[in-house]
Amino acid sequence: MHAYAVFFVAFLEEFGWSRAETSIAYAVAQLMSGLSSPLIGALVDRLGPRLVILAGGSVLVGGLVLSARVSALWHSVVLYGGIMTVGANCLGLVVAVPLISRLFVHNRGMAVAMVQSANGLGRATSTPLVQLLIAALGWRQSYLVLAALMAVVLVPVVWCFPRREPQRRLALRSVPVTSHHAEPRTDDWTVRDAMRTPHFWLLGSVYLCTGLGSFFVSLHQLAFAVDLGFGKLYAASVLGIGSFLAIAGIIGTGTISDYIGRELAAIMAYGISIIGVVCALFLTSPEQAWLLWLHACFFGLTWGARGPSVTAKTADLFPGRHLGTILGVISVGTGLGSAIGSWTSGWIFDLFGSYQLAFVLSIASYLAGCVVFWRLRQPPALRRREPHSGPESL
Asked: CATH number, domain at 251?
């Protein structure tokens, strides 16, 4: 799924679509990812992760096979934007985080980060490897190779997940008063209860700002570098190496959030991302390869690094049996921000012939995310509705 940035460049060359047109499938995919998350979260709460992963992985394999026959823009929108995205979302954090969050309490941030770091590894390896595949086989055959790979790994991945969530007695350690560890809570939040708190909407805003900040840049990174005169494989390799740093960034930020608090950890990640985008603002020619490296490393280091803080914060604030559904609903903000950012960036290029304004908007979005996340410091109180007074309650 992360390799679409490479297919993006191939589609521009083969079909002659504009940047905004080529961005539509990716924008729809991000929006669909957010919109499908509540349903997938509810299915995970009801059916468990194994069946959801099996169904989603099968859908993703089918979408990859059909993508090899894309010949019109709407084909890509339907396949990548719809079918493949729903399938991939069934293998995502909405499926894993509820299970992880209930099994790990004191080190929840680190546990979520360990899982999410695989996302950084996938992004780091997909860009250069798929560019090599396309150079050797063409983009259509590359989709078939990816489909075969997905089909091979799906069965062992599904087998690793339990049929039922394991019952585990948490050995709760005594935590110093000054610690930022999440304390175990016995509240059982529902979606309706969560939506009655400002924290729910603030979390949604954090997801929105993060999606905007990240996707004003990420989809168009390779096209931006190629426009400046960098070779495709060289640029893909640099961006891939930068993305590889996300593994350390995600695990480090998630672990730190257990000790210094989710808010400070997330703000630190926002700051590093901003430095990466600023480097891109000053990049104007292939003679400035060092700036491309700085951009790739700073932006890549914190790609997804806010995820553990945000998802762990959601679990901290709204624990209980309905966490998957709550996380799914809040994730709509990510889909909306990512869709708007990725398409708008292409539209800005078509209008001005440059990504400079998109990069400025990315920085502004990250700054807004810092402000909103800081307002989540105090946990909400679970307020139950009063029982209906009437003859039946007497």
From this structure: 1.20.1250.20
Closest CA to 20 of 302, 296, 340: 340
- Helix intervals (H) in the chain: 4-15, 19-47, 49-67, 73-76, 85-89, 93-103, 108-137, 139-160, 191-195, 198-215, 221-228, 232-244, 246-260, 262-281, 289-301, 306-317, 323-330, 332-352, 356-374
Whether the model clears a pTM of 0.85, i.e. scores above it, the answer is no
Tokens of 36: 């499908």
Q: Which domain holds residue 129?
A: 4-162+187-378
386 falls within a domain: no
Whether 171 is covered by a domain: the verdict is no
Element (H, E) at 382: none
Amino acid at 256: I
Instruction: Give the torsion through C-alpha atoms of 141, 142, 147, 151, to 10 deg.
Output: 110
Cβ-contact 281, 356 below 8 angstroms:
yes
- pLDDT tens-digit readout, 301-359: 888 778 777 777 887 788 777 777 787 788 788 888 888 999 999 999 999 999 999 99
Kindly state whether residue 178 falls inside one of the protein's structural domains: no
CB 220 within 8 A of CB 346: yes
For the chain, how many structural domains are there in total? 1
CA-closest candidate to residue 13, choices 276, 226, 265: 226
Give the CA distances from residue 349 to residues 10, 209, 239, 304, 342, in Å, rounded to whole numbers and listed in that order. Answer: 17, 21, 20, 25, 11
Q: What percentage of the chain has pLDDT greater than the value 70?
A: 89
- Spatial neighbors of 95 by CB under 8 A, at least 6 apart, are 40, 44, 49, 52, 53, 324
174 falls within a domain: no
Q: How many residues belong to the chain? A: 394
Best mean pLDDT range from 86-90, 261-265, 316-320: 86-90
